[in-house]
Amino acid sequence: MKKILTLTTILLLSANLLRAQGNKHFTFHGTIEYNKTSNVWAMLQKAINKDNEMWYQPRYEQYKKTKPQFKILKSTLKFGNNQTLFTPVEPETPTAGYWSEPMMTAQNSTVFSDFNTGMSTSQKSVFEETFLVKDTTRHIKWKLTGETREIAGYPCRRANGLILDSIYVVAFYTEEIPVSGGPESFNGLPGMILGVALPHENVTWFATKVTEQPIDEKSLTAPKKGKAATNKSFMTVLQNAMKDWGTEGKEYLKGFSL
């Protein structure tokens, strides 16, 4: 009798689990709206050192008097057919240039990722020139955690990782959007990334809205204009152009490496 009861209990639990999974709704195509938030005050303050404080400190103080602490930029991510297209939204009012704000606060890339082929195409604007960078999708070694939170109405799970060998990344992904993409070039998790934080860089990307809708294949294509390059050759061009920029050059490079 005990064996029969135990078997019955297991069957009931299994049936409930399958029913719960069956009721879960999955989103395979649509558009995600993101906000990129940069703590500009913290970025500028962190950049001050004994070698530049004579001119950098006044820049920082002036910025605090005239500009808000946080800069927010919008972007969209179309997804469908296991492909994504990340597109920055042009600000309604012009933003300050590099000498007022760190490059990490900007959005300079339109990124198409095809997870069927493992390839990406990024259109990057730099020095009034446009590059078309074609390469494999970024590989990030993620470590999944048990922490969860809700973003834009979707249950998400946290993962931690590193990019550029040293930048710590926190991401929140949802398995209810079974596409391994995310904002900018962030990808590689078992579901769509709806939140990203670079804690030490004072930058975050978080989804504000997910709209489930069919996506026209013509609107989900890679950008085509720009000087052909790979990730390696593109970074070589930037490094050569900024070889005498010192610390500021390194920070500038980070902004184009995301």
Short description:
The chain is built from 5 helices and 12 strands. By secondary structure, the protein is of the alpha+beta class. The radius of gyration is 22 Å and the shape is globular.
Explain how this protein is built.
The protein contains 5 helices and 12 strands. It is an alpha+beta fold and 258 residues long. The longest helix is centred in the first third of the chain and has 22 residues, at 2-23. The radius of gyration is 22 Å and the shape is globular. The termini are far apart. The relative contact order is 0.18.
Question: What keywords describe this structure?
Answer:
258 residues, alpha+beta, 5 helices, 24% helix, globular, disordered N terminus
Helix content: 10-25%
Portion of residues in beta strands equals: 35-45%
**What would the average pLDDT be, to the nearest integer?**
86
Q: Name the poorly predicted regions.
A: 1-21
In angstroms, what is the radius of gyration?
A: 22 Å
Question: What structural class results from the helix and strand content?
Answer: alpha+beta
Choose one word for the global shape: globular
Give the helix/strand layout.
Elements: H1 2-23, E1 30-39, H2 40-46, H3 53-66, E2 70-80, E3 83-88, E4 109-114, E5 119-126, E6 129-136, E7 143-151, E8 154-163, E9 167-174, E10 192-198, E11 203-212, E12 227-229, H4 231-241, H5 247-255
Parallel strand pairs: 6-12
Antiparallel strand pairs: 1-2, 1-11, 2-3, 3-4, 4-5, 5-6, 7-8, 8-9, 9-10, 10-11
